[in-house]
Amino acid sequence: MVSRQLVSIVIAVEAVALAVGLALLTGHGAWFAARERRLGSRLSAARAGIVAGLIDRPSHELSAALLEGLPFAARLRLLGDLEPSVAGAQRDELLELARRAGILDRASRLCRSRRWKRRLRGARIHTLLGAGEDHMPRMFDDRHPELRAEAAAWSAEHPQREILDRLISLLGDEATLCRFTVKDSLLRLGQAAVEPLKDYLATATGPRAVAGLEVAAALGDPRLLDAGFRLLRDEDPTTRCRAAELLGSLGGEDAVAAITAGLKDPAAQVRAAAARALGEGHHWAAAAPLVAALRDGSWEVRSAAGIALRRLGAPGELLLQRMLTDDDRFAGDMARLILSRPGAPA
């Protein structure tokens, strides 16, 4: 049996260890708080000096002495916070300050590292400050998806055509992170991305075209109309779905006619996508084909057609009311289900 004396010794040792741990934790917290207070005052002074230099003395170089005494992470945070608020000559001067302070050189060295996490850190510094034209384009071909995604994020602030072409080439990347970041950057680029995207969709087919069509539908630029017409005839059903969405977002008589023809596509998912596109675009001229789609053999298509008719407003709801007594039981049931949803007329 364990003696009471031994138990007491163990408890005493554990109590001492706990007390020492609490003391260390409290001491570290106090030290960290004091450090943050000192750092905060220096950051405020540096920020004020930089802002004053940019506003009051725009033709003078910002002295690297403004950042002296600040840790590298604090320097980076300060310049990164200021960068979105400046443009033109002020942004160039802020970037020059980062160069004189050694921040960009360090980022460049990191980008040349064999360790991908270091390369990623360097790439993120360049993205944060809007620099890295000599290093970031290589990241599009990096074997690690995190680096390719970072290059995609960086490109949103660099709308040169060669950069945009590299960015769009990643639309078919196997990594979800890359595809998501590419789409986000293209949407941020807006009109600058339209022509490169148009050229990409002029030859892309199948799954390679899907992500591009999603971006095209969100951009909603008429220059992308031809891509929608071409890819609505693609062999891949998912691609035809995205093409219908693009045409629906652009509208026009020819687009509506093409989408309406999609209501007879051999793939149910495409017919459903066509119905949704007609409804979301409020293309009331397609009401009769949507009524016919209520008799489709696919529940998905009937549901999409019914919802599309509801989106057309009063005329569509009137047609749904008439379908309640249709000879096709499935069409009548779908009309009844759609009309029973909240917001339906009594």
> If helices are DSSP runs of H or I spanning 4 or more residues, what is the number of helices?
19
Radius of gyration: 30 Å
Strand content: under 5%
Structural class: mainly alpha
Poorly predicted spans: 30-34
> What is the makeup of the main sheet?
none
Query: Mean of residue pLDDT?
Result: 86
Oligomer classification? single chain
Distance between the termini: 82 Å
Shape: extended
Instruction: List how many beta strands DSSP finds.
Output: 0
Question: H/E element string?
Answer: HHHHHHHHHHHHHHHHHHH
Residues in helices, as a percent range: over 70%
Structure description:
By secondary structure, the chain is mainly alpha-helical. It is built from 19 helices and no strands. Helix 11 runs parallel beside helix 13. The N and C termini lie far apart (82 Å).
In short:
The chain has 346 residues and is an all-alpha fold. The chain is 70% helix and 0% strand. The chain is extended and about 85 Å long.
